[in-house]
Design brief:
By secondary structure, this protein is an alpha/beta fold. The chain has a single domain (about 1-145), classed as P-loop containing nucleotide triphosphate hydrolases (Rossmann fold), CATH 3.40.50. It is about 25% helix and about 30% strand. A seven-stranded mixed sheet has the order 1-7-6-2-5-4-3. Helix 1 (about 10-25) crosses helix 2 (about 40-50). The structure holds adenosine-5'-diphosphate (ADP) and magnesium ion. Magnesium ion binds near residues 42, 80 and 108.
Length: about 150
Amino acid sequence: MEEKIIETNSPEETFALARKMGEQAVQGEVYVLTGDLGAGKTVFTQGFAAGLAVTEPVNSPTFTILQVYEGGRCPLYHFDVYRIGDISEMEEIGYEDCFYGDGISLVEWGDLIEEILPEYYVKVTILREPEKGFDHRKIKIQKRGSL
Ligand code: ADP
Ligand code: MG
C-alpha cells in the first residue's frame, strides 16, 4: 500500500495540496476523507474542487448527503455522510452511479460507510497535532486496494 504524509500549517496550504491532487485526479476515482470535526475535510474538498476547475462555491451541506458539481473538468460528487443513519440512505441517493460513474467522488467521513466503499479508493486522513500548533495538520494519503 502506497502511503504519503504531508504536513500543512494553514488552511491555504491544505487547499493548495488538495488543488494539486484535484488536478491530477482521474475520472472514476473515489476519495475518502477522514478526520475529526474541524480537521479540514471541507477545506480539502474546496481545494480539490478548484483543481477540477469547479467554479461554484463548495461548502459542507448540513442536510444533504450529496452535492453534485457539474461545472468542472468532470462531475464532482461531494458526499458528507456524517449524519447518515443507515447504508440504505446511500442506496436511495444512488451512490453507485457516482462511485462507478465517469465523475470523481469525494466522501467526507467515508469511513462510516466502509462496507460499500469500492475495491480501490484513496484515503485521506487529516490529523491535528496540537503540540505542533493550532493550524498544523498531518495529512496522510493512502491508496487502498487495486483498480
Ligand atoms: P471539517 O470539514 O473536517 O469538519 P472544515 O474544513 O470545515 O473541517 O474546517 C477546518 C477549519 O480548520 C477551518 O476553519 C480552517 O480554517 C481551519 N484550519 C486551520 N489550519 C488548517 C489547516 N492546516 N488545514 C485545513 N484547515 C485548517
Ligand atoms: Mg466538513
